[in-house]
Amino acid sequence: MASRSFRWLAIGLVAGVAGAQAPVVPTDHYGPPVCSAAAAPAHRMTAEAAKAEQEQGAGDSHAILSAEPLENFAIARYRLADYADCVGTNGCYWADLDAQYRRAEEALTTAVAAKKPGEKLAVVMDIDETALSSYCEMKREDFGYVGPLFNAWIVSPEASVAIPGGLRFFNKAKVEGVSVFFITGRAGVPDYSSGKPAVDQTEATARNLEAAGYRGWAGLVLRNGGENTVSTIEYKSEERHRIADKGYRIVMSVGDQWSDLLGEPKAEVSVKLPNPFYFLP
Protein backbone atom coordinates (compact mmCIF):
# COMPACT_ATOMS: atom_id res chain seq x y z
CA MET A 1 0.00 0.00 0.00
CA ALA A 2 1.33 3.46 -0.85
CA SER A 3 2.26 5.80 1.97
CA ARG A 4 -0.09 8.60 2.99
CA SER A 5 2.53 11.20 2.10
CA PHE A 6 2.13 9.95 -1.49
CA ARG A 7 -1.63 9.67 -1.42
CA TRP A 8 -2.39 13.12 -0.07
CA LEU A 9 -1.90 15.58 -2.91
CA ALA A 10 -0.70 18.92 -1.60
CA ILE A 11 -2.04 22.29 -2.67
CA GLY A 12 -1.03 23.60 -6.08
CA LEU A 13 0.72 20.53 -7.46
CA VAL A 14 -1.68 19.95 -10.33
CA ALA A 15 -1.98 22.03 -13.47
CA GLY A 16 -5.27 23.03 -15.05
CA VAL A 17 -7.07 21.03 -17.72
CA ALA A 18 -6.88 21.94 -21.36
CA GLY A 19 -9.06 20.55 -24.08
CA ALA A 20 -12.73 19.69 -23.93
CA GLN A 21 -15.01 22.14 -22.18
CA ALA A 22 -17.05 20.82 -19.27
CA PRO A 23 -20.71 21.76 -18.92
CA VAL A 24 -21.32 24.59 -16.47
CA VAL A 25 -24.08 24.52 -13.88
CA PRO A 26 -25.92 27.86 -13.98
CA THR A 27 -25.34 30.16 -11.02
CA ASP A 28 -27.98 32.78 -11.82
CA HIS A 29 -30.90 30.35 -11.54
CA TYR A 30 -31.62 26.82 -10.39
CA GLY A 31 -31.20 24.21 -13.07
CA PRO A 32 -28.92 21.56 -14.59
CA PRO A 33 -25.92 22.14 -16.86
CA VAL A 34 -26.51 22.01 -20.59
CA CYS A 35 -25.08 18.67 -21.66
CA SER A 36 -23.66 17.80 -25.06
CA ALA A 37 -25.98 16.50 -27.76
CA ALA A 38 -24.49 13.03 -27.30
CA ALA A 39 -25.63 13.05 -23.67
CA ALA A 40 -29.23 13.92 -24.44
CA PRO A 41 -31.64 10.97 -24.18
CA ALA A 42 -34.45 10.30 -26.62
CA HIS A 43 -37.70 12.21 -26.12
CA ARG A 44 -39.42 10.93 -23.01
CA MET A 45 -42.64 11.43 -21.13
CA THR A 46 -42.73 13.36 -17.92
CA ALA A 47 -43.54 11.36 -14.80
CA GLU A 48 -46.89 13.14 -14.54
CA ALA A 49 -47.85 12.20 -18.10
CA ALA A 50 -46.87 8.57 -17.51
CA LYS A 51 -48.84 8.47 -14.27
CA ALA A 52 -51.88 9.91 -16.02
CA GLU A 53 -51.66 7.19 -18.67
CA GLN A 54 -51.49 4.53 -15.95
CA GLU A 55 -54.54 5.96 -14.22
CA GLN A 56 -56.45 6.11 -17.48
CA GLY A 57 -55.77 2.43 -18.09
CA ALA A 58 -56.61 1.45 -14.53
CA GLY A 59 -59.93 3.26 -14.85
CA ASP A 60 -61.07 1.08 -17.78
CA SER A 61 -63.87 -1.07 -16.42
CA HIS A 62 -63.16 -3.72 -19.10
CA ALA A 63 -59.49 -4.12 -18.14
CA ILE A 64 -58.25 -7.04 -16.05
CA LEU A 65 -55.67 -5.47 -13.78
CA SER A 66 -52.56 -7.14 -12.43
CA ALA A 67 -51.07 -6.72 -9.00
CA GLU A 68 -48.27 -4.13 -9.25
CA PRO A 69 -46.77 -3.66 -5.77
CA LEU A 70 -43.75 -1.74 -7.08
CA GLU A 71 -43.54 1.47 -9.04
CA ASN A 72 -42.77 1.01 -12.73
CA PHE A 73 -39.01 1.46 -13.09
CA ALA A 74 -39.25 3.62 -16.20
CA ILE A 75 -41.63 5.99 -14.42
CA ALA A 76 -39.24 6.14 -11.46
CA ARG A 77 -36.53 7.24 -13.90
CA TYR A 78 -38.89 9.81 -15.39
CA ARG A 79 -39.35 11.21 -11.89
CA LEU A 80 -35.57 11.36 -11.39
CA ALA A 81 -35.18 13.22 -14.67
CA ASP A 82 -38.00 15.62 -13.77
CA TYR A 83 -36.41 16.34 -10.40
CA ALA A 84 -32.98 16.90 -11.98
CA ASP A 85 -34.47 19.11 -14.72
CA CYS A 86 -36.65 21.04 -12.22
CA VAL A 87 -39.91 20.27 -14.02
CA GLY A 88 -43.16 18.80 -12.74
CA THR A 89 -44.25 18.76 -9.12
CA ASN A 90 -41.37 16.83 -7.47
CA GLY A 91 -39.18 19.82 -6.72
CA CYS A 92 -35.78 20.89 -8.03
CA TYR A 93 -32.60 18.98 -7.25
CA TRP A 94 -30.34 21.99 -7.78
CA ALA A 95 -32.40 24.20 -5.47
CA ASP A 96 -32.30 21.51 -2.79
CA LEU A 97 -28.52 21.22 -3.14
CA ASP A 98 -28.13 24.97 -2.81
CA ALA A 99 -30.41 25.09 0.24
CA GLN A 100 -28.30 22.46 2.02
CA TYR A 101 -25.10 24.29 1.21
CA ARG A 102 -26.53 27.52 2.61
CA ARG A 103 -27.33 25.66 5.84
CA ALA A 104 -23.77 24.34 5.84
CA GLU A 105 -22.40 27.86 5.43
CA GLU A 106 -24.41 29.06 8.42
CA ALA A 107 -23.15 26.15 10.54
CA LEU A 108 -19.58 26.84 9.43
CA THR A 109 -19.89 30.47 10.50
CA THR A 110 -20.98 29.29 13.95
CA ALA A 111 -18.06 26.85 14.19
CA VAL A 112 -15.51 29.47 13.18
CA ALA A 113 -16.90 31.92 15.74
CA ALA A 114 -16.25 29.32 18.47
CA LYS A 115 -12.67 28.66 17.36
CA LYS A 116 -10.10 28.74 20.16
CA PRO A 117 -6.72 30.44 19.77
CA GLY A 118 -4.24 28.23 17.91
CA GLU A 119 -6.90 25.71 16.90
CA LYS A 120 -6.79 24.21 13.39
CA LEU A 121 -10.24 23.67 11.86
CA ALA A 122 -10.98 21.25 9.03
CA VAL A 123 -13.87 20.42 6.74
CA VAL A 124 -14.11 17.09 4.90
CA MET A 125 -15.90 16.96 1.55
CA ASP A 126 -16.82 14.08 -0.73
CA ILE A 127 -16.43 14.69 -4.49
CA ASP A 128 -19.08 13.05 -6.69
CA GLU A 129 -22.48 14.75 -6.31
CA THR A 130 -20.93 16.86 -3.53
CA ALA A 131 -18.22 19.00 -5.15
CA LEU A 132 -18.55 17.83 -8.76
CA SER A 133 -21.72 16.84 -10.59
CA SER A 134 -22.06 13.68 -12.70
CA TYR A 135 -25.46 14.81 -14.00
CA CYS A 136 -24.56 14.75 -17.70
CA GLU A 137 -23.16 11.22 -17.56
CA MET A 138 -26.05 9.96 -15.42
CA LYS A 139 -28.45 11.48 -17.94
CA ARG A 140 -26.58 9.86 -20.84
CA GLU A 141 -26.91 6.50 -19.08
CA ASP A 142 -30.62 7.18 -18.48
CA PHE A 143 -29.98 7.25 -14.71
CA GLY A 144 -28.68 3.72 -14.72
CA TYR A 145 -25.06 2.83 -14.04
CA VAL A 146 -22.70 1.46 -16.67
CA GLY A 147 -19.39 1.09 -14.85
CA PRO A 148 -16.95 1.31 -17.80
CA LEU A 149 -18.72 4.38 -19.21
CA PHE A 150 -19.00 6.16 -15.87
CA ASN A 151 -15.38 5.48 -14.86
CA ALA A 152 -14.10 6.67 -18.22
CA TRP A 153 -16.16 9.85 -17.93
CA ILE A 154 -15.09 10.91 -14.43
CA VAL A 155 -11.43 11.07 -15.50
CA SER A 156 -12.23 13.10 -18.63
CA PRO A 157 -12.02 16.92 -18.77
CA GLU A 158 -15.79 17.03 -19.29
CA ALA A 159 -16.22 15.83 -15.70
CA SER A 160 -14.95 19.09 -14.17
CA VAL A 161 -18.51 20.24 -13.47
CA ALA A 162 -18.65 22.20 -10.21
CA ILE A 163 -21.79 22.24 -8.10
CA PRO A 164 -22.15 26.00 -7.47
CA GLY A 165 -23.16 25.67 -3.83
CA GLY A 166 -20.24 23.32 -3.20
CA LEU A 167 -17.73 25.71 -4.73
CA ARG A 168 -19.21 28.64 -2.83
CA PHE A 169 -18.98 26.68 0.44
CA PHE A 170 -15.39 25.61 -0.34
CA ASN A 171 -14.34 29.20 -0.97
CA LYS A 172 -16.05 30.40 2.20
CA ALA A 173 -14.15 27.79 4.23
CA LYS A 174 -10.86 28.98 2.76
CA VAL A 175 -11.66 32.63 3.50
CA GLU A 176 -12.50 31.66 7.08
CA GLY A 177 -9.13 29.90 7.44
CA VAL A 178 -10.64 26.40 7.51
CA SER A 179 -8.68 23.64 5.76
CA VAL A 180 -10.67 21.53 3.28
CA PHE A 181 -9.86 17.86 2.72
CA PHE A 182 -11.42 15.78 -0.05
CA ILE A 183 -12.02 12.09 0.73
CA THR A 184 -13.54 10.12 -2.13
CA GLY A 185 -14.30 6.51 -2.90
CA ARG A 186 -12.79 6.88 -6.36
CA ALA A 187 -10.04 4.43 -7.31
CA GLY A 188 -6.57 5.44 -6.19
CA VAL A 189 -3.39 3.37 -6.34
CA PRO A 190 -4.42 -0.07 -7.67
CA ASP A 191 -3.77 -3.32 -5.88
CA TYR A 192 -1.39 -4.70 -8.49
CA SER A 193 -1.16 -8.03 -6.69
CA SER A 194 -4.77 -8.78 -7.65
CA GLY A 195 -3.86 -9.14 -11.29
CA LYS A 196 -6.92 -7.13 -12.31
CA PRO A 197 -6.49 -4.13 -14.64
CA ALA A 198 -7.10 -0.84 -12.86
CA VAL A 199 -6.53 2.87 -13.37
CA ASP A 200 -5.34 5.31 -10.71
CA GLN A 201 -7.82 8.20 -10.91
CA THR A 202 -5.90 10.49 -8.54
CA GLU A 203 -4.24 12.87 -10.99
CA ALA A 204 -7.33 13.21 -13.21
CA THR A 205 -9.49 13.87 -10.16
CA ALA A 206 -7.13 16.58 -8.93
CA ARG A 207 -7.02 18.20 -12.37
CA ASN A 208 -10.80 18.24 -12.63
CA LEU A 209 -11.24 19.69 -9.15
CA GLU A 210 -8.87 22.52 -9.96
CA ALA A 211 -10.37 23.08 -13.41
CA ALA A 212 -13.78 23.38 -11.75
CA GLY A 213 -12.46 26.08 -9.41
CA TYR A 214 -11.52 24.07 -6.30
CA ARG A 215 -8.07 25.50 -5.72
CA GLY A 216 -6.17 25.55 -2.46
CA TRP A 217 -7.46 22.39 -0.81
CA ALA A 218 -5.42 20.91 2.00
CA GLY A 219 -5.55 17.30 0.86
CA LEU A 220 -7.05 14.79 -1.53
CA VAL A 221 -7.21 11.06 -0.88
CA LEU A 222 -8.63 8.26 -3.03
CA ARG A 223 -9.27 4.67 -2.12
CA ASN A 224 -6.26 2.38 -2.56
CA GLY A 225 -6.91 -1.02 -4.11
CA GLY A 226 -6.21 -2.76 -0.83
CA GLU A 227 -8.86 -0.65 0.89
CA ASN A 228 -11.60 -2.06 -1.30
CA THR A 229 -11.87 -4.95 1.15
CA VAL A 230 -13.27 -2.65 3.86
CA SER A 231 -16.57 -0.80 3.88
CA THR A 232 -16.81 2.81 2.78
CA ILE A 233 -17.66 3.82 6.34
CA GLU A 234 -14.51 2.14 7.67
CA TYR A 235 -12.35 3.65 4.93
CA LYS A 236 -13.61 7.21 5.36
CA SER A 237 -13.55 6.97 9.16
CA GLU A 238 -9.89 5.98 9.05
CA GLU A 239 -9.09 8.93 6.79
CA ARG A 240 -10.84 11.30 9.21
CA HIS A 241 -8.74 9.76 11.99
CA ARG A 242 -5.63 10.67 10.01
CA ILE A 243 -6.79 14.28 9.69
CA ALA A 244 -7.54 14.48 13.41
CA ASP A 245 -4.13 12.98 14.15
CA LYS A 246 -2.58 15.95 12.34
CA GLY A 247 -4.09 18.20 15.01
CA TYR A 248 -7.24 19.31 13.20
CA ARG A 249 -10.65 19.74 14.75
CA ILE A 250 -13.06 18.38 12.11
CA VAL A 251 -15.99 20.76 12.36
CA MET A 252 -17.95 19.48 9.36
CA SER A 253 -18.30 16.66 6.85
CA VAL A 254 -20.30 17.13 3.64
CA GLY A 255 -21.46 14.27 1.44
CA ASP A 256 -24.30 12.92 -0.66
CA GLN A 257 -24.13 9.40 0.87
CA TRP A 258 -24.62 8.36 4.48
CA SER A 259 -21.42 6.32 4.12
CA ASP A 260 -19.58 9.65 3.65
CA LEU A 261 -20.68 10.76 7.10
CA LEU A 262 -21.09 7.77 9.41
CA GLY A 263 -18.39 6.16 11.53
CA GLU A 264 -15.96 7.48 14.11
CA PRO A 265 -14.66 10.04 14.40
CA LYS A 266 -17.70 11.91 13.11
CA ALA A 267 -17.44 15.57 12.28
CA GLU A 268 -19.11 17.93 14.73
CA VAL A 269 -21.71 18.66 12.02
CA SER A 270 -22.64 16.26 9.20
CA VAL A 271 -24.30 17.75 6.11
CA LYS A 272 -26.24 15.21 4.02
CA LEU A 273 -26.85 16.43 0.47
CA PRO A 274 -29.72 15.09 -1.63
CA ASN A 275 -28.94 12.27 -4.04
CA PRO A 276 -31.88 10.23 -5.35
CA PHE A 277 -29.82 8.82 -8.22
CA TYR A 278 -27.72 6.14 -6.52
CA PHE A 279 -26.87 4.69 -3.13
CA LEU A 280 -23.37 3.68 -2.03
CA PRO A 281 -23.11 1.66 1.20
From TrEMBL:
It comes from the Bacteria. Residues 1-20 form the signal peptide. Keywords: Signal. Gene3D superfamilies: HAD superfamily/HAD-like. InterPro entries: Acid_phosphat_B-like (IPR005519), HAD-like_sf (IPR036412), HAD_sf (IPR023214). PANTHER family: ACID PHOSPHATASE-LIKE PROTEIN. This is Acid phosphatase (Class B). It comes from Granulicella mallensis. The lineage of its organism: Bacteria, Pseudomonadati, Acidobacteriota, Terriglobia, Terriglobales.
